[in-house]
Amino acid sequence: YDTISCGVIDDKLAAIALANKEKIFDRNRAILLKNREILDKWVLKTPGVKYLRPVAGTTALVYYDKEISSYELCLKLIKEKGVLFTPGSCFEMEGAVRIGYAFDSKTLGEGLEKFAELLREI
Q1: Contact 76, 63 (CB under 8 A)
Q2: Three-state DSSP class for 100?
């Protein structure tokens, strides 16, 4: 029964968000555009990776040219570098990882550099 009706606090927060939706959309759009540019530049300078640049959205599939399954690669990445990507095999897209870029730019840049580091080590 927790989804039948919204709690009072939830309702108040939703009303505040809706009253300020343009500010929220503008902020989020700016984050996404900046981070997509960071991802673009990283793909261009990183050997052995490619992607189809997203037109919209918050994630991208990045393809890599190493002989390792996407699941194994993602396990190594989280265990050795502390970076979490989703294996492409989850989407029947082996040889790729899904990268989300809807958060702070510093963290994105650090994560991409750690991914490049792991790719060099493999």
Answers
A1: no
A2: strand
Q: In what order do the strands lie in the sheet with 86-87?
A: 49-51, 59-64, 96-100, 86-87
- Max Cα–Cα distance, the chain, nearest Å: 53
Which region holds residue 92: left if phi is over 0, alpha if psi is between -120 and 50, else beta? Answer: left
DSSP of 34-99, one letter per residue?
A: HHHHHHHHHHHHSTTEEE---SSSSEEEEEE-SSS-HHHHHHHIIIII----EEGGGGT-TTEEEE
- 1 or 3: which carries more pLDDT confidence? 3
Closest CA to 107 of 83, 73, 79: 83
The residue count for the chain:
122
How far, in Å, CA of 44 to CA of 95, rounded?
A: 18
Is it the case that residue 62 has pLDDT exceeding 70? yes
Say if residues 99 and 85 touch (Cβ distance below 8 Å). Answer: yes
